[in-house]
Each structure stands twice: as C-alpha cells, then as structure tokens.
Amino acid sequence: MKTFYDKLIIVLFFLTGQWVLAQYEISGKLSNYDSLWTNEIYLSYFAPDGYGYNVMSEDQIINSGILDEQGNFKIEGNSLPDHNSIVRLHLGGEKSKYILSMRPVNHIHMILNNQSKIYVDKFISVYA
Question: What is the CB neighbour count within 10 angstroms for residue 48?
C-alpha cells in the first residue's frame, strides 16, 4: 500500500512540476539612473482597461529589485498570470517609489506572462 502512495506522490509532482517551476525573469542593465532615480526598480500591474496607466500605488507593485553599481538588475518570481498581461517596470524616485515621470522617462510597459524571460537594456532616457 505504501508504494501506491509513493507512486501517486511522484506522479502528482511530475504533473504539477511545470506549474511549480514556471517563473518569469526580467534582467537588464540601465545607465544614467543614479543621478535621476534611486537604485530600486519595481514591476507593477495595472488593469486591462487602462486604469492605473498614469498612476501608481502600493497595491499595484508585484515585485521589486535593486540595481547594482553598474546598473544591473534581476527580478524573478511566479506572481504573474499564465496568460499575457500588461505590466510596468519603473524606477523609484528619491522621495517616493510611486512617481511615474514622462520627462525624463522612468518606466516602460511590457506584455509578460509567468514564463517570460526578458532582458532590458538602457530604457532610461533623459528626453522622451
């Protein structure tokens, strides 16, 4: 009887393994961020109807990371849906992590899912 349950556990592990191992990864290297923004970078969500496109609040933040001295960062997790959704990657400001700036730009919008792997290179621009 014990071997039946052992086999059942192994089968369940293999059936759910892809779901458990599914993980997004966003990495990159940014330049010119140190003089304008903090070294904190955030992944945030906004509603499909566009609500939250130009605003930011704590409940929209999905994950965060820290940029090293060279501007490298990595954010990974499994908190995105399996279907494609619109997310925002943005840098925090000196006084608040909720600032979305148009000039200079401190954010980009992307379409990602829980299996996405993406590398971002130098999205910070002094003039949009």
Answer: 8
Paired tokens of 93: 């400001």
Interval 42-95: pLDDT, tens: 998 876 666 666 667 788 889 999 999 888 999 999 989 899 988 988 888 766
pTM, rounded to two decimals:
0.72
* Cβ-proximal residues to 89 (8 Å cutoff; 6+ apart), any chain: 26, 41, 42, 43, 44, 75, 107, 108, 110, 120, 123
Contact between 123 and 37 (Cβ < 8 Å): no
Element (H, E) at 119: strand 117-121
Q: Strand pairing partners for 42?
A: 64, 90
